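Possible regression after last week's pipeline update?

I re-ran a chain I had predicted before the update to compare outputs. Posting the input and the new output here so someone can diff against the archived version. Not blocking, just want to make sure nothing changed silently.
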Amino acid sequence: MTDATPRTYPQGVPSWIDLRTPDPDAAEAFYGGLFGWSFEERLPPGVPGSYRIASVDGREVGAVASSGDPARWQTYVAVDDADAVAARVVALGGAASAPEDAGAGGAAGRSVDCVDPRGAAFGLWQARARLGSQHINAPGGWVFSDLRATEPDAALAFYADLFGWLVSDMQEGPGAMLRLPGYGDHLAATSDPSIRERQVGAPEGFADVIGALDRLDAGHDDWHVAFSCADRDAAATRVEELGGRVTGTWEGYWTRAAEVEDAQGAPFRLTQFVPRG
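New output (post-update):
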């Protein structure tokens, strides 16, 4: 295995993101200007709407999708069988749309839009040709998606039953780390064979981290995406230059972060990796 080995995602790991937006052209200008993303339309000519894959140096980050709703980022969790997991979502008190194939003949994968019992929207992604995000944990790449909840323990109960997630003792910024046991072993055996050596000294279970569980003081539960940047302050300034808004900043043990909104109001996070010590 080499650095060119595609990244794959076992069931229960967030694997893909897309921006649902009423103005894909404006979104392309904003994120292209902020992160240097390139875009490729994947819907055939004549098909209404747009689904544009965003990439850095040929590695897919996520997508920009046309929508009649207010702009927001959607996070998808990898599953082996979208239909079976969608049924399980409903059985646990959530809601799920009818599963749909993506790409010609379903070649890309199969997806489901879901809402958890507390109202947070997320998706399921059964990968075929589109394995999931490939440009991650590097400037312009996706880092994590965090579940933000006014009652974190109640929110986690659903996902623990659905995917087997656990809460770690590790903290970063406003929340605790979520982990899926065995994810680090999967990475070591596939796309990241040196992960154990690289993370020597890290807390136990660090390689299994798949996101975070953040406490909200007010508002409604949601999923919040974070992107890596080389310089938090410079990136935050660029957000404002492109018509977006900075709503706050914070310092964690591993990161300097800024909470921002794009020019259409979709919230996300900028994170600069700056480990202490």
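Follow-up from reviewer: compared with the archived run. The two ends are 31 Å apart (CA to CA). Marking as no regression found.
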